[in-house]
Specification:
The structure holds 2 protein chains of 2 kinds. By secondary structure, chain A is mainly beta. Chain A is built from no helices and 9 strands. Classes of the chains: A mainly beta, B alpha/beta.
């Protein structure tokens, strides 16, 4: 995957710590939630809870997870998996920091498995 | 004041944690025995040095880590001489010399001179830009350097060095760590855990130079980097020394007290001069010196007891455990790191991908050590088993998977034999409380509940791990134990709402992070249950100073609108007392058309709900509504919602009073208030009760003779009719009683407890006692309510319509 696959969507400071913002892509039905954890790591997931499609970008970010605002499902930001006993997963988008810039890789074939492990500062 | 017999003079050299904890222990036992003077080198009140790394990381302020503010010294009659150095002790004359030349006489002297940072014997340490990491001045200098420079190198990959590195990283610097040994924190972690730690910190952008011996600090005018012995060179504008500490024994040595590495003390914490005691990092006891807090608290307790005249108090070092304060990195270590010989055994669990590693070291079926990485919740359990020398052979197979697993697998947890437990045995490790002290308090104060024992002794009041033991002691002592009816807030803590609220007030906890720290939260960030609760508790406790944490608010309260199942929002403007007019209705109609709002609905609370508004539209919708004088109705919050009214005496032929006007007055007083759960009111103009006041959180029913105030009703899932609180004669009294009840509910209810279950739980008698019977208390509650209203009565919509919190309402980016 070439370096040109990464798109800048904003700066780390644009998202509050323990917060999230939404990125709108070309498909209006699959917006992307970009999260910033307390320790300044960034993650991105498709902004739809696997339960009832709630906007995860509106949830409370805790550690490396987010609680969906609609019914409280907790989704792991790193894996996109729902915390037990709930079952389900969200498509993960590769995200990384370059200096203060947040970069996403929106190439559709880039799945969670290929994404670089350390989406960290 | 000192009476005929002058009190003995106790002079304390050092205003740090060890010495001041000793003084606290002494004051508990015998507050009047000494006239106490404390001499401190730093120009600050006593603060928690352990938390300096959190100050460096920007998670806490200096004020947050003060243990005893100046007021505490005054309150306890302790004289503090700050910013002063003791230069010598004249043991013959029994006085100390200050740097200014004055002398202070003592009958007994306590040395708490602490430690000095170790410095390697290398050139360049004098250069500007080289700092130790030891006190507030060091942290201030490091923070300042992080604002002007970009690159830092930390020498030392132990506990302190890694915390310093992480703090500087959080401050935006690029950070490298030089460590002499092959793996990090080698005194607390085995090689596997050390490597996991390095991998995690490396992923967070900290560079490591292990096996690195620093040969020189480079630079002419100021530090420019460090030179390693193997030829590697690390550029840096800031060099932080964190290779360790050594006891500060200068004063003791010149006074010719017996010293070795530290000031030598016996089990009674006395030095070689029986009038002089010493505690903390400056001492050496049985060949050991100290840098961690648990043994130092124990020393303080013994020394405080000795100073109070308890000749039986003896210091026995407790088991020591460590954890690292780096957000999101969980490390725990206690006792032996590895099997010492063939007789020892190790049980390990290692999941490299998830970064979890656990090791327990066994000797004769007993735990002698443990190293945990990534998942540390069971650390205190292992320490307890270790200290109790518990035989683990019965549940050895489950041991490594932790307490919950072992106990659910039916492992017979080692029997707790309270009768056989010696009185001197420490039950609560966090606060150093023995079985004996708990028993004394139970008898002396006739305690019957866990909460009462916690309040009086602090046992199980921090991490809560020893709760079962404290309960067992209580049962053993009294027979009849009333279990705590204060359920845990969430899975992040064992503490209940009431306990947490009390701790916030009594310990002066001012931030969510401070609460989690002081009460030993199990998670670094909390969760969606405890964060909003703590945010509310702090708003309620410190209405004038607390800074609301938006990220701990549920989305509705964060964005001031109500999220709907499709992710759109609803907007409900306030209609005071259910009154509206043509202008407002026109504005609502215009907004509905202009923004193509799909649904307009009249609510049960006599207002109008605009449903299906997109998030990006909210500020513009609010701006239009503001123009017509409409403000937020807080229909989205755990807050004052509506005051429903009937038309009352103004129009109704049965009306006895102006219920509409009174409803408006109540709503004007109450709006904007944050509450444990939503609060709805109603005012009915006569006992026909058309406003349905008797199923509201607070209701007023007008009668000829005045006003009946009723509380604790609910028309929801569990219908409850209000209880009658009081009948009053005037509107002014209605406002005062309602304000007072509101404040009592705000201060006493659990988070997300509506007024109905709150009144059921406490009983109407309790409410009457505070709000009706005691006029002074009622007025105090009412006053506190009014004070808490001052900062919140400004329209949140207006602020956001004019640009505040704009990031909430805009996407981060649009990409194609």
């Amino acid at each position: 995957m070439g370096a040109d696959a990464w798109i800048e969507v904003g700066r780390l400071d644009d998202i509050p710590r323990r917060g999230a913002r939404r990125v709108r892509g070309h498909d209006p039905d699959t917006p992307i939630a970009v999260f910033r954890t307390a320790d300044d790591r960034v993650f991105a997931l498709v902004d739809r809870c696997p339960h009832k499609a709630g906007p995860l970008s509106e949830g409370i970010v805790q550690g490396c997870a987010v609680a969906c605002p609609l019914h409280g499902w907790v989704i792991d930001l790193e894996s996109g998996e729902a915390e037990a006993p709930d079952e389900g997963s969200v498509t993960k988008i590769a995200a990384r920091l370059d200096g203060g810039r947040i970069l996403l890789s929106l190439a559709s074939e880039r799945s969670a498995a290929e994404a670089p492990k350390a989406a960290c500062a | 004041m000192d009476g005929i017999f002058p009190r003995e003079r106790l002079v304390v050299v050092g205003n740090g944690m060890a010495a001041m904890r000793t003084i606290e222990e002494l004051l508990v036992r015998d507050p009047a025995r000494y006239q106490i003077t404390v001499i401190g080198a730093e120009p600050h009140p006593n603060y928690n040095r352990i938390m300096l790394s959190s100050v460096l990381a920007g998670e806490k302020s200096v004020d947050d880590i003060v243990i005893n503010p100046y007021g505490w010294y005054d309150e306890h009659g302790v004289t503090l001489v700050g910013g002063a150095a003791v230069t010598a002790i004249d043991r013959g004359e029994k006085h100390v010399w200050l740097s200014g030349g004055e002398t202070i006489p003592y009958d007994r002297l306590l040395l708490g001179t602490g430690s000095k940072p170790l410095a390697p014997p290398i050139p360049g340490l004098h250069l500007p830009g080289v700092r130790a990491f030891r006190d507030i001045a060091d942290v201030a200098a490091m923070v300042e350097a992080s604002q002007r420079h970009h690159r830092a190198v930390v020498i030392g990959g132990g506990l302190l060095g890694l915390e310093a590195a992480w703090g500087l990283k959080r401050r935006g610097m690029s950070v490298a760590v030089v460590h002499l040994m092959p793996t990090l924190m080698e005194r607390q972690l085995d090689a596997t855990a050390g490597e996991l730690l390095q991998r995690d910190l490396d992923a967070r952008g900290i560079a490591f130079f292990t096996n690195g011996q620093t040969e020189a600090v480079l630079g002419e005018e100021r530090a420019e980097g460090v030179q390693l012995a193997d030829g590697r060179q690390v550029d840096a504008d800031l060099v932080v020394l964190a290779i360790g500490i050594r006891p500060n024994i200068d004063l003791a040595r010149t006074a010719e007290l017996d010293v070795n590495r530290g000031v030598l003390v016996g089990d009674d914490m006395r030095t070689s001069d029986p009038h002089i005691y010493a505690v903390g990092e400056c001492i050496e006891h049985n060949g050991q010196v100290f840098g961690l807090v648990a043994p130092i608290w124990e020393q303080a307790k013994v020394c405080g007891a000795r100073l109070a005249g308890d000749e039986a108090a003896v210091y026995v070092p407790p088991p020591v455990f460590t954890s690292l304060k780096i957000t999101g990195v969980d490390v725990f270590s206690a006792g032996a790191l590895a099997a010492a010989d063939e007789g020892d055994e190790e049980i390990t669990f290692h999941d490299a991908r998830r970064g979890i590693y656990k090791k327990v070291v066994l000797r004769d079926d007993r735990i002698v050590g443990s190293v945990l990485y990534g998942h540390v919740a069971d650390g205190p359990w292992y320490v307890r088993l270790m200290r109790d020398k518990a035989d683990i052979s019965a549940f050895r197979d489950q041991l490594i998977f932790g307490q919950a697993f072992a106990e659910s697998a039916g492992a017979p947890a080692p029997k707790l034999d309270i009768a056989a437990m010696p009185g001197a045995e420490q039950v609560c490790d966090c606060n150093g409380v023995t079985k004996g002290r708990i028993c004394e308090a139970i008898v002396a104060k006739q305690l019957t509940t866990l909460d009462a024992v916690r309040a009086h002794t602090k046992a199980s009041a921090s991490c809560g791990q020893c709760t079962a033991k404290v309960e067992a002691i209580l049962a053993h002592m009294g027979g009849a134990v009333t279990h705590s009816d204060d359920p845990p807030l969430c899975k992040c803590t064992q503490h209940g709402h009431d306990f947490v609220r009390q701790a916030i007030r009594e310990q002066g906890l001012k931030t969510i992070a401070a609460v989690r720290e002081a009460l030993a939260w199990k998670t670094a960030d909390g969760c969606q249950k405890c964060r909003p609760a703590l945010n509310y508790f702090l708003i309620c406790a410190w209405p004038e100073t607390y800074r609301d944490d938006a990220q701990s608010r549920f989305v509705n309260e964060r964005v001031h609108a109500n999220i709907q199942k499709d992710g759109t929002f609803s907007v409900v403007p306030r209609m005071w007392g259910g009154l509206t007019n043509a202008r407002e209705l026109r504005a609502i109609a215009d907004v509905a058309e202009k923004f193509a709002i799909p649904t307009v609905k009249v609510t049960g609370g006599q207002r109008i709900d605009l449903l299906g508004v997109k998030k990006e539209q909210l500020p513009a919708v609010w701006a239009d509504l503001n123009d017509a004088g409409l403000v937020s109705g807080h229909a989205y919050g755990k807050a004052l919602r509506t005051v429903k009214t009937c038309v009352g005496s103004e129009w109704c032929r049965f009306g006895t009073q102006d219920s509409t006007g009174l409803g408006v007055k109540l709503e004007k007083m109450l709006w904007g208030s944050w509450t444990p759960h939503k609060v709805k009111l109603a005012v009915s103009g006569c006992p026909r009760n058309c406003a349905e006041a008797t199923i509201k959180d607070i209701g007023v029913v007008c009668v000829d003779a005045g006003y009946d105030i009723v509380v604790g009703g609910n028309g929801g899932v569990e219908v409850r009719v209000t209880d009658h609180l009081v009948r009053v004669a005037t509107e002014a009294e209605v406002l005062e009683y309602v304000g007072a009840f509101m404040q009592l509910y705000r201060e006493e209810a659990r988070y997300l407890e509506r007024a109905a279950p709150y009144v059921t739980r406490k009983g109407i008698g309790h409410i009457r006692k505070h709000v009706v019977d005691d006029a002074g208390n009622r007025r105090a509650l009412y006053e506190r309510f009014l004070v808490s209203q001052r900062p919140v009565q400004s329209d949140p919509w207006a602020k956001r319509a004019s640009g505040a919190e704009a990031h909430e309402y805009r996407p981060l980016a649009e990409v194609n």
